[in-house]
Write a structure and sequence with these properties.
The protein is of the alpha/beta class and about 300 residues long. The protein has helices at about 15-25, 25-35, 40-50, 55-70, 75, 100-115, 130-140, 150-160, 205-210, 215, 225-235, 250-260, and strands at about 80, 85-90, 120-125, 145-150, 165-170, 185-190, 195, 215-220, 235-245, 265-270, 275-285. A 7-stranded mixed sheet has the order 5-4-3-6-9-11-10, with helices on both faces. A two-stranded antiparallel ribbon has the order 1-2. A two-stranded parallel ribbon has the order 7-8. The structure holds S-adenosylmethionine.
């Protein structure tokens, strides 16, 4: 099933800090936490996070109870590693996944190929801001716009952008963007929801019962949001602009065929580290050039 979670510690998690945590809390309590949750590594990460709280022992005990209640470790820790970042995460947002780190690799590769350091990038469905903040920090001259339908998710995303460099916008997919951006975007990147409603029950309970349904479920087919992103990008990208979209493995070939039918060029499916089809890459052809309808004014940045 898609949206399986891989474990990646928050930056610094599980490292030397754990020794200090054990001193703070007491090695016996950390061992007891490990025994109760059946996972020494997770217990060490929790102890390290708890050691920064005013009452570490009580905080660790509360964390253990939350974990035993099925809550994902990432929400309990309150932050999670993503590429070079340590992102705040809680129940308002999807926990960023390792395969999305690869999506950012593909996005940066495409961005670099444009040869435009000040390229305009749009991240649709930004959630925690994982993709947008990574691109903004790894390519600091880019102009990044990030959207989400969820105001709650946008609060988290904003908190993950300490420089305030990213423009966060609320709204339904393309409707969130200012009209003046149409035809001026160098790169559209998105990890939209892609689980079909009928597949929701089969999700890992830790995903299904804790992560926002809006971040997971797309609709009856599961491809509704991807189709909206792929279909809409044609009129927002500049000619030759890039599109990078995460999909479930079984959706990738169909979505690539859709992109070809819509006139994109250089359509490609890439795999994740496990060898599963996971990313759709494409470029807008000159033929996809948007018809600007009274929206030719270029937006000034800032
Ligand atoms: C799979 S999550 C991806 C979050 C983040 N980009 C990541 O990769 O970790 C999908 C995101 O799309 C947002 N979303 C769902 N429906 C949307 C819509 N109609 N318009 C804009 N965003 C939407 C969700 O709130 C969620 O944050």
């Amino acid at each position: 099933m898609s949206r399986a979670r891989g474990l990646a510690p928050a930056a610094g998690g599980g490292g030397a800090g754990w020794i200090g945590a054990a001193e703070e809390i007491g090695a016996a309590q950390v061992r007891e936490a490990a025994r109760r949750i059946g996972n020494p590594r997770e217990a060490r990460w929790m102890a390290e996070a708890a050691s920064r709280a005013p009452d570490p022992t009580r905080t660790l005990a509360a964390m253990v109870e939350r974990r035993l209640n099925g809550e994902p470790l990432q929400y309990i820790l309150g932050s999670w590693g993503f590429r070079r970042l340590e992102l705040a995460v809680d129940r308002r947002v999807l926990i960023p996944r390792p395969e999305t780190e690869q999506l950012v690799d593909a996005a940066l590769e495409m961005l670099d190929r444009t040869g435009r350091p000040e390229a305009t990038v749009v991240d649709l469905g930004t959630g925690s801001g994982a993709i947008a903040v990574s691109i903004a920090s790894e390519r600091p001259r880019t102009r990044v716009w990030a959207t989400d339908l969820s105001d709650h998710a946008l609060e988290v995303a904003r908190s993950n952008d300490p420089t305030g460099a990213i423009r966060f916008l609320a709204g339904d997919w393309w409707e969130a963007l200012p009209e003046g951006l149409r035809g001026d975007v160098d790169l559209v990147v998105s990890n939209p929801p892609y689980v079909a409603a009928s597949e929701a029950e089969a999700l890992d309970p830790e995903v299904r019962d804790w992560e926002p349904a809006m971040a997971l479920i797309a609709g009856d087919t599961g491809t509704e949001a991807i189709e909206t992103v792929v279909g809409g990008a044609r009129s927002w990208l500049r000619p030759g602009g890039g599109l990078v979209v995460e999909t479930a493995p079984h959706q990738a070939p169909g979505m690539a065929a859709l992109a070809s039918r819509l006139g994109y060029v250089d359509v490609e499916v890439r795999t994740d580290l496990a060898g599963r089809d996971r990313m759709l890459l494409a470029r807008s052809a000159a033929a996809c050039r948007p018809r600007l309808q009274g929206a030719t004014a270029r937006l000034s940045w800032r």
